[in-house]
Amino acid sequence: MSLTLDAAKLLAELVEGNLLAAAQEVEKLSLLQMSGTIDHTVVEKAVSDNARFDIFGLVECALSGNSNRVLRMLSTLREDETEPLLILWALTREIRTLAAISKQQKQGVALGALFSKYRIWEKRQPSARRFLQHHTEKSCWELLTLAALIDRQIKGASQGSVWDSLQQLALKMAGDVIIKASAEK
């Protein structure tokens, strides 16, 4: 079994440095296709059914400003009983990274160098650029403050709907203004 360069790059992007996940995906690919060359399409199909990649897809949609898709993906993740903590982790991980990039970019560091430093793959750079155009370092910290509230909600230390709050966080990442009607329910 061998992977094309595009397939290997996609797999690396999808597992985002998690070697255990990478090993599991390679094993799954070997079971699905015992021999031959595995291309980009095979990798994409093999990992598309995995919820954690749906979570990364949610992050990508939020960064890209695709609010309608964000809402659909969150709804699907909720129906699939995906742990809210995993969703929160993926969203906050990205916000923290982009807050650091925003800070360093303001200090004059070239964006290309920052993308390399923080391992923002070429395919994800347009959505990261879009996010950075719509969010300052300060607004990133405001998003992280909301994420801290969601963490407390998950742990039962704060009241409110975890799913409504996750929706609010993801939509704010996408650049949408949120009406606080859900808090009044």
Descriptive labels:
single chain, 185 residues, mainly alpha, Helicase, Ruva Protein, domain 3, Zinc Finger, Delta Prime, domain 3, 2 domains, two-stranded parallel ribbon, 11 helices, 2 strands, 2% strand
- Taken as a percent bin, the fraction of beta residues is under 5%
Mean pLDDT across residues:
85
Strand order of the largest sheet: 1-2
State the end-to-end CA separation. 55 Å
Name the quaternary structure. single chain
Please tell me how large the radius of gyration is. 18 Å
Q: Which structural class is indicated by helix and strand composition?
A: mainly alpha
Number of helices: 11
What global shape is seen? globular
Provide a descriptive summary of the structure in words.
The protein is globular and about 50 Å long. The longest helix has 23 residues. It has 185 residues and is mainly α. The chain starts with a strand and ends with a helix. It folds into two domains: 48 residues, Helicase, Ruva Protein, domain 3 (Orthogonal Bundle), CATH 1.10.8; 133 residues, Zinc Finger, Delta Prime, domain 3 (Up-down Bundle). It has a two-stranded parallel sheet with strand order 1-2.
